[in-house]
Amino acid sequence: MATPEYNNFIQDFITEDTESGRYGGRVHTRFPPEPNGYLHIGHAKAICLDFGIAEANGGLCNLRFDDTNPAAEDVEYVDAIQADIKWLGFSWDDRMFYASAYFDELYNWAVKLIRDGKAYVDDLSPDQVREYRGTLTEPGKESPYRNRSVEENLDLFERMKAGEFPNGTRTLRAKIDMASGNINMRDPVIYRILHAHHHQTGDQWCIYPTYDYAHPLSDAIEGITHSLCTLEFEDHRPLYNWLLEACEVPQAPRQIEFARLNLTHTITSKRNLRRLVEENVVGGWDDPRMPTIAGIRRRGYTPASIRNFCNDVGVAKTNSVVSLMQLEHFVREDLNKTASRMMAVLRPLKVVLTNYPEDLVEEFAVENNPEDPDAGSRYVPFSRVIYIEQEDFMEVPAPKYFRLAPGREVRLKGTYFIKCQDVVKDEAGNIVELHCTYDPETRGGEAADGRKVKSTIHWVSAAHAQDATVRLYETLFLTPNPAEGGDVMANLNPKSLEVLEGCKVEPSVHGADPGSRYQFLRHGYFCVDPDSTLERMVFNRTITLKDTWAKVAGK
Question: What fold characterizes domain 344-458?
Answer without folding.
Answer: Ribosomal Protein L25; Chain P (2.40.240)
